[in-house]
Amino acid sequence: MKRIAFLLLFSALCLASFGYNVAGTYTEDRRGIILPTPDGGRLCVEMVRPDIVRVRHSVSGELLDTNPTGICVPHPGKNRFSVRVLRNGADWLLVSDSLLVEIPTDGSGIVFRDWRTKRIIGMEKTELPREGRLIVDERIVYDETSRRTVQTADGEKEVRDILRRDTIGSTYSYTLHWQFTNGEAVYGLGSHMENYMNLRDKRLYLCQHNLKAMVPVLSSTAGYGLLIDAGSEMRYDRGRIGIEEPKRARYRKLMED
Fold this sequence. Notes:
This protein has 257 residues and is mainly beta. It folds into two domains: 15-131 and 173-254, glycosyl hydrolase (family 31) (Immunoglobulin-like); 138-168, no CATH class. Helix content is 0%, strand content 53%. Strands 1, 5, 6, 7, 8, 9, 10, 11, 13, 16 and 17 form an eleven-stranded antiparallel sheet that branches. Strands 2-3-4-18-15-14-12 form a seven-stranded antiparallel sheet, with no helix packed on it. A hairpin with a 5-residue loop joins strand 2 (32-36) and strand 3 (42-49). The chain is globular.
């Protein structure tokens, strides 16, 4: 019996019986769609293998093909498979012989199903599935000639007027909101000093420190895994994963035998 599992990276048989309309068949290297997002950015969902789906979200709208983290190495010779891109009402579907991926166009969460049983394997939260925002790093320059003492509720304070604000850098902050099911346990994220294994209701800062070793992979008893493909520190908070990265956020989902 095949055991379903996936690490967020996601084909089609007898689709007419399910009431889906065929919108196209993709056999080239890129098998998926790109949609605008409510935050003005773009969302790219594509199948890397019949059992692996890659999801990329960019607030700026820039979706680079390169993968600077080096976490996932492509194997062109293993990419010969067919994916069908379908419409189900206003929403999009990606279908392989392993997965059915439901991609709403209203900005709600992506749902990943087993193609044969239609069982939900994993899903983003329906409302606010992912967030992204630009963070600008500023240096404030004060006018030293305006230095003065003022009376406040905390007593006397020395204040100065702001002369100017210099932008010295910027980055993007992204958050993925993942939906766990009842009774589901999740493990992983590396080696940590805390005395627990199930991370479902826990909070962790993912960074290299002392005895901590960061590995941005979650494995679930529901039969899937999540790989956060970003070379930065992260925060995990009960299914909410926050990262800061120079350009974009990516995460992948896998299925395996």
